[in-house]
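Annex B, item 7. Sequence and structure tokens for protein A, then protein B.
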Amino acid sequence: MPTLAESMQALRTIAASEPVATLAAAFAARGHEFALVGGPVRDALLGRPVTDLDFTTSARPEETREILDSLTRSVWDVGRDFGTIAARLGGEDVEITTYRAESYREDSRKPEVRYGDTIEADLVRRDFTINALALMLPDLRLVDVGASSESGAGGVEDLLAGVIRTPGPPEDSFTDDPLRMLRAARFASQLGFTVAAETQEAMAEFAERLDIVSAERVRDEFVKLLRTADPDPGLRLLVDTGLAERFLPEFTALRATQDDHGRHKDVYEHSLTVLRQAIELEHSRAHEPSPDVVLRIAALLHDIGKPATRRFERGGVTFHHHDVVGAKLARKRLRELRFDNDTVKRVSRLVELHLRFFGYSDQQWTDSAVRRYVRDAGEELERLHILTRADVTTRNRRKAERLEHAYDDIERRIGELAEAEELAAVRPELDGERIMAILGVPPGPMVGRAYKFLLELRLDEGPIGEAAAEERLRQWWAEQGA
């Protein structure tokens, strides 16, 4: 962490820049308080890049809109009901929110918003002391409301100590907005901080309160956690406090499931290791997109079918078809969390395919099997490469090296076949129109059956040319007794 002098210099630099100086002067001229608040102040003090500019003001939303309209033509409501107006000014997108306080009713999924009159009252209602910091503009006064809290620890002190705690009693904070419990986990991963003991206890006590928060808000916070450089600490905190059980029970169930006759680490630890290794491979292979949320969800959930398929047979433990069961469970859970259809489809497909490779090292596949592997993976092939490699967590070095070499080999063969056959676009030599013309049939199920026959032929034997494909099609047609 930089020195206090360096941090204050970073804040002064932000304050002197456009559009901050312009905004501060405009609000001051209208007699309103104006401050840079929350994440930007925190990140500047930590020496982290400041990417978003969030401000708060004593002005009501309609007054904020008037001031912004006088400065730029690009103004829009982010959430007028929540007191937030946004604008593009000096090449920057900014959000300005009226001082406020918000809380949830017992039966509400949306917070009730009340406007406040002082910066101190606004900061007290924020989630954590490290975010309850404001730089008043244009006078450059740092307000650290946490320093006067019951704990006596302010945001600056907690930044120095690497601690996440609420400005007031955690039970009040989490009752007001239960999503803050997920944010605590996210910040633990994002910043590498430790959540204070009393804050963790309150997270466990009020975990059920998360049920009133909409699935969309829970999903968004979960995604933010997964996008951090190291989601592991945050995920463990969610499981340990019972929060994960509220929205991802299939993952928490893994703690009670062991494989390899109980001698190996449990499936929960294995899944976290696979996630960590997938992130490492994501970086080392310069994989795009990065961070890859689809890949990370698939890594986390790839074994969630194991608890439902665990069987004790001949003194051992089996998990037959856990890939198929896991894909169904992942699909159901992600839909309940309101993930988009594309993400649901991609994640469930990766979970379903994650075991396909194992066994290749014992009996090398034919070219036909390799083609099918690529065909089944489709657009998820690169993700499947990463997930399959990450799924090797054995402590047996010889076994790990054998699997690594085997996957090196299959990737090499995929590359060679792709170069020779345009493998990524495998399709029959004859399309539907040619099939109908050759067989003299109209559109219908028979054309689909013929197409599938030609596709299997292409996968088994590779390119054979249109003439040979037509001959084989006629032979197949004759065998159908047409």
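Protein B:
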Amino acid sequence: MNNTQVIHPMVKFQQQVKSLTDKKLVNGTDRLWQVSLVFGNDWQHWKNELIDFGFTMQDPIAALLEVEAWDDE
């Protein structure tokens, strides 16, 4: 049996955004919409995912980074 865990797509997105804050390209106090320039053509998808999880584009990036578990239910 394969013990490989599947990482939730939002975890990968969260890690990418965390990397942006680590590199000081954005701050935790910046608004979520500010990462849209980095994600280019993929932004619409991620924006819809964030909205589905109850975020607004005015929420601070720190709110995204604080999420510990992503449940689709």
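Comment on protein B: Helices lie at 9-22, 36-39, 43-52, 61-65.
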